[in-house]
């Protein structure tokens, strides 16, 4: 079969990843808005939209598997195809976690899911993680290695905010009780995991472009 058919398949994989990335960014932004601004209908839309993200992952896996079976790619082409499967998994997990955030917001309605005393930290955490996910999707599209390497330091800020939330919950300012602390602990964990998936997406892109894992690069 002609070489351009393999190129066509890898280009299609890249396009599907971009489409899936956009869907995940949109879902996560909506989940954050539902959580912080108490929009139950927005939370429902995130929950209802999750199967479409799952379907995109399935389509990527089918195309990637067919590409490997038919063309037996090697070297850079094989990295692209394998990374597409792995990246689709990372994106699906971000979508799942966005759904969990939306479910938490919906479950607490009409009460706020985030106590006032923690709102400022969660707003900042939402903004930081949203920026990381959007950056990771940009990296998927552009394969910008330098941009990808920024995600590691971005994640350090998320880890610091995560620690700040726990300091708050175990401090004298926390008067919201144990159930609220449990809810906030779960939400903080969801955000932390999403940030980790964003970093993993960037790392896979670095490997696709360079053939090396990020820690092996001296940039």
Short structural description:
With 219 residues, this protein is mainly α.
Explain this structure to me?
The protein is mostly helical and 219 residues long. 85% of the residues lie in helices and 0% in strands. It contains 6 helices and no strands. The protein has helices at 3-37, 40-71, 75-108, 116-142, 145-169, 177-210. The protein starts with a helix and ends in a 9-residue tail after the last helix. 37% of the residues are buried.
In the predicted model, the low-confidence regions spanning at least 5 consecutive residues are: none
- The fraction of residues in strands falls at under 5%
Terminus-to-terminus distance: 39 Å
Helix and strand content put the structural class at: mainly alpha
So what's the overall shape?
A: elongated
Task: Indicate the mean pLDDT.
Answer: 93
Overall radius of gyration: 19 Å
Largest sheet: none
């Amino acid at each position: 079969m002609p070489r351009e058919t393999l190129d066509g398949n890898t280009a299609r994989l890249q396009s599907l990843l971009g489409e899936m990335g956009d869907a995940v960014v949109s879902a996560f932004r909506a989940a954050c808005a539902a959580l912080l601004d108490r929009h139950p209908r927005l939370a429902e839309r995130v929950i209802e939209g999750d199967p479409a993200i799952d379907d995109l992952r399935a389509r990527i896996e089918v195309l990637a598997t067919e590409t490997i079976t038919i063309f037996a790619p090697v070297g850079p082409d094989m990295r692209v195809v394998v990374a597409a499967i792995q990246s689709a998994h990372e994106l699906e997990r971000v979508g799942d976690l966005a759904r969990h955030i939306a479910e938490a917001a919906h479950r607490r309605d009409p009460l706020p899911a985030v106590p006032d005393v923690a709102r400022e930290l969660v707003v900042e955490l939402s903004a930081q993680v949203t920026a990381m996910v959007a950056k990771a999707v940009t990296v998927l599209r552009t394969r910008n290695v330098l941009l990808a390497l920024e995600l590691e330091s971005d994640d350090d800020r998320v880890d610091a905010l995560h620690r700040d939330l726990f300091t708050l919950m175990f401090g004298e300012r926390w008067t919201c009780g144990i159930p609220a602390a449990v809810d906030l602990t779960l939400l903080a964990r969801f955000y932390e995991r999403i940030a980790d998936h964003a970093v993993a997406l960037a790392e896979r892109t670095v490997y696709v472009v360079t053939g090396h894992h990020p820690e092996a690069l001296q940039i």
